[in-house]
Design a protein that fits this description.
This protein has 7 helices and 2 strands, in the order ααβαβαααα. The protein is mainly α. Helix 2 crosses helix 6.
């Protein structure tokens, strides 16, 4: 499922952070950041087949968060970053206080398809299923003797 259902406004995602500029650069649009970016994991899950992405655990340990918050192997991270930097634009808006409320109002009114909570997103279930497939793949890799023997 490539990115379908994009609203006419073209908006895919709305997020908030105390330092969103740093978050955008160091997490969402940087190779290796998928394990810490819901946006990257969602886009990667949607484009997994098209970009030939292989999921791996986020870290070396056996914590469930390491496969739930999967990342992609090195070539996949680079392919995803390349796709994102050539296909997407990011906009950062400074808000003085109440940024969570503003974020929710934007989601309520603009319906970004990769915001999986906060509105009755008709694609949320499908995106979550694709993300679960990726998490299961990372879990299987984490449980493999080859992964354990190389220490992640």
């Amino acid at each position: 499922m490539p990115l379908t259902g994009v609203p006419e406004n073209g908006l895919l995602y709305v997020g908030s952070s105390a330092n969103l500029a740093t978050r955008e650069y160091h997490t969402h649009f940087k190779s290796g950041g998928s394990g810490f970016s819901t946006l990257r994991r969602s886009i990667g899950a949607l484009l997994k087949s098209d970009l030939h992405l292989d999921t791996i655990p986020r870290g070396k340990g056996t914590s469930p968060s390491n496969y739930r918050n999967y990342r992609f192997d090195q070539s996949g991270e680079h392919a995803l970053t390349n796709w994102m930097t050539h296909s997407l634009e990011a906009c950062i808006c400074l808000i003085d206080g109440h940024y969570r409320e503003v974020e929710q109002k934007l989601i309520d009114n603009l319906h970004p398809i990769l915001c999986l909570t906060g509105w009755s997103n008709p694609l949320a279930k499908e995106v979550k299923v694709l993300r679960k497939i990726c998490a299961n793949e990372a879990k299987a890799r984490m449980n493999s003797s080859r992964w354990r023997n190389r220490g992640g």
